[in-house]
Amino acid sequence: MAELAGILVGNYFLLECLAREGLVETYCARPTTRGGYDVVLRLFRPEFPEPTSFHEHFAEEVEKVWRCHHVHIQPLHEFGTGDDLQYCATLVTEAETLEQYLKRQPERYLPIPTVMSYASQLCDALQHAHERGIVHGNIQPSSILMAASRSSLAHSF
Fold it and tell me: Which of 13, 38, 92, 112 stands the most exposed, by the fewest C-beta atoms within 10 Å?
C-alpha cells in the first residue's frame, strides 16, 4: 500500500501514518473544515475485486459502531468516504495504548487484580458491542487505550 501522508481524504489532511494492520491504515490527520484538533483516521483499504459490496458492508457496520455508546468504548467522531476510501475518525487522546504501557514495564507483568480489572472492563465493552451486532475481529494491546488513572480502559473499534 502506498504511503498517503500529505494528501486529503475527505475533509482530512493526513499528517503521518501511525500503523498498518490488515486492511486498515491508521493516520494522524487534521480536519480542514474545523481547526484546533487532530484525529486518528482509520482508512479501510480492502483489495477486493468488487469494492461496491465492501462499501455497503462498511456503511452498515460503522453505523452500528456510531450508535454504540459505552464508557469503555472510544466513540467515533465521524465516518465517511473520501477519494474512494472509507474512513472513521476518533479524537486524538493523550492516553497510551496497553501495548505502550506494557513495553514500559520492566518486569512485563501486571498485578493479578489489575489484570482482572482490565479484563472485566474489556469483556463488559465487548458484551455491549456484541449485543448491538458488532463483532470486533482484531482485539490487541495496540487498540486498547489506558485512561490517565490507569484504572480504566477504552477500546477503539
Answer: 112
DSSP letters of 65-104? HHT---TTBPPP-EEEEETTEEEEEEE--SPPBHHHHHHH
Q: Is the separation of the CB atoms in 138 and 22 below 8 Å?
A: yes
Identify which of 157, 1, 2, 139 has the alpha carbon closest to the alpha carbon of residue 79.
157
DSSP 147: P
Let me know the angle formed at the C-alpha of 141 by 29 and 59, rounded to the nearest 5 degrees: 50
pTM of the predicted model over 0.85: no
Highest mean pLDDT pick, 51-55, 87-91, 134-138: 87-91
Environment class of 70 (CB within 10 Å of its CB; exposed 0-12, middle 13-18, buried 19+): middle
pLDDT at 50: 66
Per-residue pLDDT tens for 24-45? Answer: 888 999 998 876 789 998 888 7
Looking at every residue in the chain, the average pLDDT score rounds to: 80
Beta carbons of 85 and 27 less than 8 angstroms apart: no
- Assess contact for 157 and 65: CB atoms under 8 A: yes
And the C-alpha cell for 77? 467522531
